[in-house]
Specification:
Number of domains: 1
Number of helices: 3
Helix content: over 70%
Oligomer: single chain
Largest sheet: none
Structural class: mainly alpha
Length: 52
């Protein structure tokens, strides 16, 4: 299963689980640059929403 489908299965209100999943994927060695960009984009977006 891809990171995209796993991420989309998580509840939008479950920021902690989203961050945990993204952190695990971020530390993966086999990601292409586009996937890494997607992970960083989502991490920064989740933290920004949590601050509001």
């Amino acid at each position: 299963m891809s990171i995209y489908s796993e991420f989309n299965k998580l509840s939008k209100n479950d920021s902690t689980s989203q961050i945990k999943l993204l952190e695990e994927v971020k530390n993966s060695e086999s990601m292409c640059i586009d996937d890494k960009g997607w992970v960083y984009w989502n991490l920064s977006d989740i933290y920004a929403v949590m601050r509001q």
